[in-house]
Specification:
This protein is α/β, with parallel strands linked by helices. The protein has two domains: about 1-155 and about 200-210, Rossmann fold, CATH 3.40.50; about 325-340 and about 350-575. The chain has ten helices and 40 strands. The strands form four sheets. The chain has a 26-stranded mixed sheet that branches. The longest helix has 19 residues, at about 130-150. The N and C termini lie far apart (about 85 Å).
Length: about 575
Amino acid sequence: MRKLVLFALLMAAGGAFAKDNLAILPFTGGAENEGETIAELFSFEPELTGMFNPVPRTSINRAIRNEQRFQLSSGMTDPDTAAALGKQLGAQYVVSGSITALGTQKLLVIAILQVDELRQIAGDVQTYGNIEEIEDKLPAMARNIGEAARRDASRLPRLALPPVELSGDADKKDADALAQILAVHLIRGGKYAVYPRTESLERIQEEYAHQLSGDTADEHLPEIGKGANPELVLSVSARKLGTRNMFNAAVINLLTGVQEAGERVNYQNLEDGIQAMEELGVLLGGGTVSSRAVPGGREWKAADEGAFKQAIGEIDRADQEGAYTITLTSSFPADPVSFSPNAAKTITLRGEASPRILSNKRDKPLFTLPGSITLILDAHITLDGNNKQAPLVQLEGGALVMRDGSTLRASAGRGVYVGNGGFTMSGGTISGNSASGGGGGVLVRSGSFTMSGGTISGNSTSGNGGGVAVWGGSFTMSGGTVSGNSAGGHGGGVLAGGSGFIMSGGTISNNSASNYGGGVFVSGGRFVKNRGTIDSTNKANRGRVVYVDRGGLRNSAAEPEVTLDSSISGRAGGWE
């Protein structure tokens, strides 16, 4: 029986030789067995097994070795099979990874390197809190790596990437992690073929030594170190400036000694350094972005996060008024964007031809808008909160405009927070957001919210105002729909406080509140309705349509002909 199982395994391996072998080494760092566990999980991902034959150098590999030793020493294996056991194929590619502490989280950097050329063909970077969380992220990482591995880099300039030199008390592991992250972004940018001279190279040499140890048939040994030598080298030095580190990066031609490119970024700690390496990769050519001048401003097309960040940086650095447009040609996650109030700018964000998704990577607002900035969300664009504990858009004196085809969704810190400024919604959707402090969809603290179209639906809060909460500003509704929202307190659809809520059109329906005011709860502000509909599908313990704190309620539907005024008591104000 043991012979049959082994024969079946060998036949299966023999039928898969058309694919290159990929040695997956245990990842360095992390808790006990954490690196080996992640490496084994990685070897099961369909994106990689479809391109390579995984050869895990983990407990899986050790189990095979133990079985082989048993069969060879027990005399239960015939000579032909014994010969086959000694002719295992070598790996043409190596997966190496490192795990580094990052505050309360961990940083995982993965690289795939080609053994014979010593070239890195792909890589990815992720942060995680525990092993269960990284397990969910591995499929996306495998897809990113698979896409990069399919690209032809044979005609690209070859760039050697030595370790980053950090002065002072810098940690060697941090320095190597930053170098590997920079390599990932340069590969994604598609401008260079990258040859890392970091710990990744040491891992390739370990694999080569393993293959030379007698486990691999001579005719299948890859020849390490015989690839073409890079003609460029990236020299990166860091200088301490108070609490900051300044990175100076230069691409040098080894033959002429001429500097072909030079850029500078600043960072404070490892977390800042991760973002600095991303920015540095973009500045050195690691983003896919195109732009053109238009009357009164400029337009960009961005295919990835690097290109998007580059476009945002150019807009933010512009010190003159203008209209700027960014068109996303694909979907990707992004770090939060906070604009400088250096000039009055109108920025339009849209998707190309079909919906494009920009998802939030951090527990910070995806967009923060100061007083001089207007952000227009146009057709085919979705901002996804990725369940982060922050608004998708936060107004600090600026303006937000939502048009048809735009969506704000899936934030655990509400869709829009109006701290001060103006939010205008003529179309689009705000859905599936939540917040613990009220205003699951929209919270207005100071400023204004004007709604003439669009839909606010499926938002929730444990507090008051499932769809919209207005505490210190104003809400004017002349069209659109507020529907299917819920509040653990009052005001399933709308909490009307602050300066007030004026309704002259639109529909408020099918909202629910655990306490008062299924459709609208009025507290501390004036609510006036002269048109529009608040129907009886709203639900609450009291005032399922409208409840006015210390003033009145309405349980029957308030159709367009019904006028309501919270400042007038009894039937004169429209109350039952």
